[in-house]
Every structure is written in C-alpha cells, then in structure tokens.
Amino acid sequence: MAVIWATLVLIFIVYAFYELLNNIQNRKRYPPGPKGLPIIGHLHLLGKNPHQDFLKLAKTHGPLMYVRLGLVPTIVVSSADTAEKFLKTYDHIFASRPHNEAAQYLAYGQKNMINAKYGPYWRNMRKLCTQHLLSNQKINSFQSMRRQQVEFMIKSLKNEACDHRVVVDLSAKISSLSADLTCLMVFGKKYMDEDLDKRGFKAVIEEAEHLAATPHLGEFFPFLGVIDLQGITRRLKDLSKVFDEFLEKIIDEHVQSRDQKQSKDFVDTMLDIMQSGETEFQFDRRHIKAILVDMLVAAVGTTATAIEWIITELLRHPQVMKKLQKELEQVIGLEKMVKESDLENLNYLDMVVKEGLRLHSVAPLIPHEAVEDCIVNNFYIQKGSRIMINYYAIQRDPNIWPGAEKFLPERFVGSSIDIRGRDFQLLPFGSGRRSCPGMQLGIIIVQLVVAQLVHCFDWELPNGMQPCELDVEEHFGLATSREHPLMVIPTYRLNNA
Ligand code: HEM
C-alpha cells in the first residue's frame, strides 16, 4: 500500500513540475493536436493499432500534429511533403532513436544498429553492416540457398496439395520460410524448435517480438521505469539470459569450425572483422551479438509480413492474381519454377509488390528522436521529441493516391514512383539516414516468394469464402501483420508434377 501511495505522490509531483515547464515553453508555437488529459496526455486515444488512430486524428489536426504520450512530447507526421522535411531537409536532426527498454536488455545496452542513438557509434555499425553483411555481393552469395529453401517450401505445399483440397496455414509456412532464410544467412544453419530453450526457437523469438512491441510505461513516464509495474523488465532480463547463452554457443561453434568453411555466414564475417582489429571502434563479442539480434528481429517478421499481405490482396482480387499468373506463364512457362534472374523481367509483379507494400505498411511507425530544437513548417519541435513518421497514413493519403484504400497495381503503369526512399509518398523502407539497410534483400525475397507461390499454385479460400470476405484486420507490432492466419487451399499448376 505504501508503495502505491508513494508512487501516486511521485506522479503528482513530477506532473506538477512538468506542467510548470510546459507553461513556460508554451509561448513557443507547437504543432496543432487534440486536447490531452492531465498526466497521461494522449495515451488514452491510442488503441491496439496506433497507426490507424494517428491517421484518424491527423484528418482533424493536420499532417504535422503534436501529442503527448505520458511525459514524452511526440510529433506525428502524416503527409509526404512534411515527411520530406523530417527525413531529408532536417534528417541530421531527426535521425536518432528514443530510449528502448527491450534493446537495453536484448541488445546489450542498445548496442544494436536499429536502436542506437545517432552519432559515431551508430555510423560505424551501419557502415559495417552495409559494407560487409548487406552488400549486393554478400546478398548474391546466398542466392542458391534462397532457391533451395523456397523450392523446399513449394515441395512441402505440393505434397499437402496432393491430398484432396487440404486447407493449409500459409502464414505459418511463410513465416517458417522467412526464419529459415534468415538463420541460414546469419548463422549458417536452421534452428529447430528445441533449440534456444525448452519453449522452442519460435516461441522465444515471438516472446522477444512481443516484449519489444509492448508499450513500456517507463518509456512514457521515465521515473516509473525502475518500478516495473508491468513486469516487462523482469521478463526482458530473463529472456536476455536465454538469448545470450544461445548466441554465445553459436559464436563458439563458429570459432571452432572456422578453418573448414568455404562459404561465410554473418557470424563468420563478423568474427573475421573482430579478429582483424581494423574497425575504428571497439568491436567485441557483445557487438557481434547485438548485430545478430538486429538481423533476426529486422528480417524475419518484415519479409514474412510483406509476403502475407501481398498474397492476401491477390486472393481478394482474383483478376489481379490471374493477370500475374499470365505474366509468369509468358516469361517463364509452365514447365519451370521462377529464378531470381527472372525477376527483372516481371513488370506486373513489380507493380503488384509496390502496391502491396503501399497499402499494407509493414513497419508503419518506427520512432525517431530529435537531437536539437528545430522549426518545421513554422512550428517548434523541441529537442528530445519523439518523431513518428506515419508511413501508413502517407501511403493511404487520398490527395496523392486516388482510390487510396483500393488494391490497384495498375496505378503504377507508366509511373516512375519507386520504393527506395526517393519518392516520399511511398516509403515502405523509410528514407534518409535511418532507412532500411536490408531493403535490397527484402525486395528480392518478397518478389521471389510471391512469384513462386503464384506461379506454382492456384489458390482458393476455404468453406466457400468469397474473395471480398477475406479480412484485412491488422495486428500492430514490430511488423504489422495479419490479425488472423491466412488459411488457403492450394492446387499445384505446373506441368513438371
Ligand atoms: C520487406 C521487408 C522489409 C521492410 C518493409 C523493412 C522496413 C524497414 C523500415 C520502415 C525501417 C525504418 C525506417 C525508419 O526508421 O524510418 C527499417 C529499418 C531497418 N531495417 Fe528493414 N525492412 C525490411 C527488411 C529488412 C531486412 C531483410 C533487414 C536485414 C537483414 C533489415 C534491416 C533493418 C535495419 C538494421 C534497420 C534499422 C536501420 C537503422 O536504424 O539505421 N530490414 N526497415
């Protein structure tokens, strides 16, 4: 009881102090926003899909909006031209990341690239990853591994499809393919359910994703961080031990088998870098482990989610599915499977993937942080503000995208808009300094898997469900995936049965 009273008194004192400060600062012109409540600010306006809630609020308050999440001043950006100000004009001011409780424990004190504060450390880590792990040459070196794994999934689906009209959980298949592709590239081997700990690899990764995505009270009320009312810190500490043991074991195995290897996975490459001593900054096992966590977290869920959404939209739009199958038939033929080298000749596939990534923003709200005070569009943005570029709102802006809520790949016919961060109305991989360094790899995997699934199978929904009845409910998280798994009936369609 005494602890609760002490907490309430503490909250009151901090709040009173905060309001006083606010009144002094209020002479500055902040961006418009909804009316907030004492202490919690605007937290009560956010539900389980905050990107959708912010979009609704932006319709009333505009593309540059001020909200307060607990004690954290937050700026929500919802239009392409305003996003350009944050990600290009003043990118150097908004390229940092806020404190992240999960990364404190799972990434050795925020030593990973995703959550690192903007500065020399992040710059060095990013350079190391883009030059050595995510370069075109490195990505190409895993091409035959990707072919094998995708064919392996197709074979397993084909075997299941032999049983008359079997319903498969395609979400689970895609997610396990994505985990295998990532593990083989990063660790050199796949991890089975019994690895990591008794709960299994998948369950532990899901727990990490869940904890990382759960809003932590300490992020919005920093003085509450130490009390850990939600028990998140305790769970993160436990999980960090499991991860650390697993990653240490992997590094040890790599150290022992290094001389016998021909091809190098990410762990081998990083051990080479560590031993060469050529980095301009301290680089030891902790840094290797933090990067490994990054690669797992950043690659597995995002690519699987993108594929899942694109297939969802194809199922909802059978005429688009047919048109894509026709293109695949013409370019590849019904005797062969899709190869990576075919992708550059598949123009309609390119449009389908762009449109899928536009309509379903995989990572709609990755926070940035302001390192200095700044004036944008005549509004004051204070140092330390959390910046939320709402990619979901930008990519569904009806002023830029006619019929924005519709899945219409043809909108890209004759258009030069691309997805690489140059065009601010379409930013599935972000833009500027903090844009996605795994973009090239992500695009290859998404295009290849979508093409292969559509080329090799005809797809039907179970229980006579009509295409328009397939739901598009979202589940906000590190990657914003389908709320419900995608259940479908495949029929193999190639002639090499
Ligand atoms: C379809 C797949 C993917 C999508 C849609 C995607 C999207 C994004 C987005 C939106 C960001 C944040 C941009 C911002 O902060 O404004 C990001 C950051 C990042 N992504 Fe990806 N990503 C994908 C795949 C990958 C892959 C395959 C990897 C690595 C193997 C990767 C590694 C990263 C990393 C390390 C960051 C943080 C960069 C930094 O903070 O400097 N991503 N991604």
Automatic annotation (TrEMBL):
Key words, A-Z: Heme, Iron, Membrane, Metal-binding, Monooxygenase, Oxidoreductase
Q: Which GO terms fall under molecular function for this chain's record?
A: heme binding; iron ion binding; monooxygenase activity; oxidoreductase activity, acting on paired donors, with incorporation or reduction of molecular oxygen
Q: What is its main location?
A: membrane
Record-listed heme binding positions: 436
The positions making up the signal sequence are: none
Q: A Gene Ontology CC term for this entry?
A: membrane
Compartmental location: Membrane
Q: What superkingdom heads the lineage?
A: Eukaryota
Q: Which cofactor does it need?
A: heme
The family database entries (InterPro entries) matched by this protein are listed as:
Cyt_P450 (IPR001128), Cyt_P450_CS (IPR017972), Cyt_P450_E_grp-I (IPR002401), Cyt_P450_sf (IPR036396)
Q: Name one Pfam family in it.
A: p450
Family assignment from sequence similarity: Belongs to the cytochrome P450 family.
Q: What does this protein do?
A: May have a role in maturation, such as during flavor formation or other metabolite production specific to aging tissues.
Q: What is this protein called?
A: Cytochrome P450 CYP736A12-like
Which taxonomic lineage is given here?
Answer: Eukaryota, Viridiplantae, Streptophyta, Embryophyta, Tracheophyta
